Amino acid sequence: MARTRIATTIALKARMGTDLMVSLLCNRYTVFILGVYAYSLAILALGGLGGVLGAIDIKPMWLFRLDETRGVYLKREYLELILLFYLYGYFHVILRPSRWRALLAAVPLLLAYLGQDIFFLMFNKIFRFYELAEVPELLRVLTWQYLTALLVFVVLPLGFFLWSINYRRFVILVAGILPLALLIGAAVYFPQSYINLYQAVGEEIVFWSDADTVANNGRFMTLLYREAELHLARAKTGTFRHRAQYDDQAGQLAGWIRAHTNKRNVHLLVMESFLDPTLLKGATFSKDPFHPSFKKLFGDKMGFSLSPVFAGKTAQAEFEALCGVPAFGEITGVEFNSFTGSPAYCLPGTLQLAGYQTMASNAYNPSFFNAPNAYRGIGFARVYFPREYGSGNDTYLSKGDTTGEKEYMFDGTIFAQNLEYIAPLLKGSQGAPLFNYILTIYGHFPHLLNEEKRPIVLKMSSDLKDEHLERAANQMFYRSQALADYVSRLIELDPKGLIIVVSDHLPPGQHGHRSYQKLHYLDGSEESLYMNRILIIEEGKIQKLATIHHYDIPAVVLNSITHGAYCAENSCGFTQNKLLDDRMPRHDAYMRVMAHASE
């Protein structure tokens, strides 16, 4: 009897345990989380965004991270999961009971995620709230097939969700939405506090890549963080925002340029980590790092330009070279991240008003540094990225064979394609002059070479071993040849043109600052870490200026295309044969650019 009782008890407990396990596994919240996980894996497989459960380990022991200074804290990746879980529960509560209730509660979240992922897959950039302003234009150009799909898969499901809400539960409706409203309100009305608090919670925001930021933090949390950054930019620059006056000043400058210009074509190349290895006084090379064709063309005519950055943040160097103001980094860590596409009238925008064709060719992924919006705001009428990144627009670029070189398009590849594309534009002497901007990516850390195509040609000897700089020096042999070929051909096609080639920054090296100090780059000082090579070719002749800043480049361009009239009427530091410390006098100009760029 006792044995029977024990057996019955054991069986009952086992059944209860089984029922509990089944209950947990079949619970709608468990199914929802598993659905999110499955969605994340599926969208990643399609080339979409990572984030939430698709890119992180879901073991409970890894929910928290240990830091020596902050102790134990929640990993920020899980903030998105908590938000999703909360919203799903809230939607479930406010819906009327039905057999579809659990599924219907996930509809708004699925559509919100799917919309952002489709946007990324189409345009290779991250959705931001200001993109909604383009929805009316999008609806006008969509074909009836796409409009039908939008109606069936978005409007009807969302409409059914709204119809299914129990609006009689007014208190619950309001109380449940309040935390979300407070979160959004904090990002919009208290952006600095929101950013500070968010940064204190977990890992650093990836400033160069929105896609990586989403993978770390999730779509909703990244969306709110970038919105906070934008509102912070607008708050800081509010007193400098006078659109009508700004437009009028840009128009006046463009009119002056049109009256004084020689219609010279301009070719500006910002090259990734274009290092001069010969400036490493503490190293010797078994062979000259520069190709003979490069040495023959340029000799000792390379100058110096002071970059705002060392070892990274290429967009900061781009910002200075294109906008003519220092990259103070006051609005966000990278100014490009605050651009919305609103006209900022940097050099390309001003030249476009003055009658120039303006085009930008970027050798890498448009999801980096918010580049599409930044280029549009800067003033490029046409922007091209390699078609392999699915930019969603017609493009003449293809990254070519990047096997063994970390997806980094070789300089010679983009140069050859650019020459082929612009040749017809240069032949028409009666056509509008051209501003041709190129950003290269080859030479990016960790400086990998495909040795079947580009064998190692030199060895570096020094007291400090630095394999990265040795590989960078080998890359320079091939890069300098590609550049020499490009410039020579460009001079043939455009003998009256202006060509400027500048490095964005020095490569980081294996040991960062220490590599350059130990290898005695220039004088080994801290300032030397920002000294980069620049080449200026005007009407086929090499021009060597005293050291300038990257933000002097627009003035160099304007002076060249106006026969020197620009610097005759304006103060140009580069004409005074000395490096002027004029960053702070340009601060107001910087704020005006950012005020209108972030509109």
Summarize the structure.
49% of the residues lie in helices and 10% in strands.
Structure report:
- By secondary structure, this protein is α/β, with parallel strands linked by helices.
- It has 22 helices and 13 strands.
- The strands form 3 sheets. Strands 3, 5, 6, 7, 8, 10, 11, 12 and 13 form a 9-stranded mixed β-sheet that branches. The protein has a two-stranded antiparallel sheet with strand order 1-2.
- Helix 8 packs across helix 11 (219-236), helix 10 (210-217) crosses helix 11 and helix 13 crosses helix 18.
- The radius of gyration is 28 Å and the shape is globular.
- The model is unreliable at 16-22 and 54-76 (pLDDT under 50).
How is this fold's topology laid out?
Layout: H1 2-26, H2 28-45, E1 64-67, E2 71-74, H3 77-94, H4 101-104, H5 107-123, H6 135-141, H7 144-163, H8 170-189, H9 191-201, H10 210-217, H11 219-236, H12 243-260, E3 266-271, E4 283-285, H13 292-298, E5 303-306, H14 314-323, H15 347-353, E6 357-362, H16 371-378, E7 382-384, H17 411-427, E8 434-439, E9 460-462, H18 467-493, E10 498-503, H19 513-518, E11 531-538, E12 541-543, E13 548-549, H20 553-561, H21 565-569, H22 587-597
Helix pairs in contact: 8-9, 8-11, 9-11, 10-11, 12-15, 13-18, 17-18
